[in-house]
Amino acid sequence: MRDTQTMILKQIKDEQFKLQKEIRSWLGPLILFSLIMIAFPLSIDLMNVGLAELFLNIIIITILVTNYLSIDDVFFEDFYDGTIEQSLIKDSNLYVYVACKLIITVLMKILPLTLISIVFAIAYKVNVSFLPDLCLLFINMQIIFVNMLFFGNAISINKGSTLGLILVMPIIFPAVILFGQALTFLRLEIPIFSIHFMATGISIIACILLTFVTAITLKLHLE
């Protein structure tokens, strides 16, 4: 048990070190997100739409695009430098490897992006009472998106990430619709506890199931 915990902690530290070295891979998408959120209002007539309404209209797709760009090549380098193969030799499966990737992605990409999104929500004059709901929605939304994109990246690891995105879009669309509906309810000041409950459940299932499926997919590429 202790050996397993040590291995997991070492894997997490290794992934953190990689991201710290490759600042562009996680800082670039955050900067792009900020630029989109700043520039988009400048390109339309704000006389006909409020800032809060504008924020709620564009935030889901903006976060989805940012998530995609931030993990575009999440497995690519490890696949070609032998890191994934070494992880398979050490642990006989890749579940821990993928789970550690997910943990670091949550800590260094999802949480910072959520914080920035909340800052922009305040700047766009979104009702302050919406902020706790938005924070939980953004975290669950990104966890679901990232798990799906991890799976897509694993499928197309040697064929380009665009193919992976195309393959997982059919299962991403229902999530986009769900969170879009949640924002509509917020706009109408309808309680969204049931959507929070559903989204949290889906994100937990995605973390367990899609991590397992992604690990199997990566293993198949090595065989």
Top keywords for this entry?
about 220 residues, about 80% helix
What does this structure look like?
This protein is mainly α. It has one domain. It contains nine helices and no strands. The two termini are 28 Å apart. The relative contact order is 0.13. The model has no long low-confidence stretch (mean pLDDT 83).
Chain-wise SSE layout:
Elements lengths: L1 H20 L1 H17 L11 H20 L5 H5 L2 H9 L3 H29 L7 H25 L5 H27 L5 H30 L1
Helix pairs in contact: 1-6, 2-3, 2-6, 3-6, 3-7, 3-8, 6-7, 6-9, 7-8, 7-9
How far apart are the termini? 28 Å
Summed over residues and divided by their number, the pLDDT gives a mean of 83
Number of domains: 1
User: Helix proportion of residues, in percent?
Assistant: over 70%
What profile does the largest beta sheet have? none
**Secondary-structure element sequence?**
HHHHHHHHH
Overall spatial form? elongated
How many β-strand stretches?
Answer: 0
Give the strand content.
under 5%
Output the number of helix runs. 9
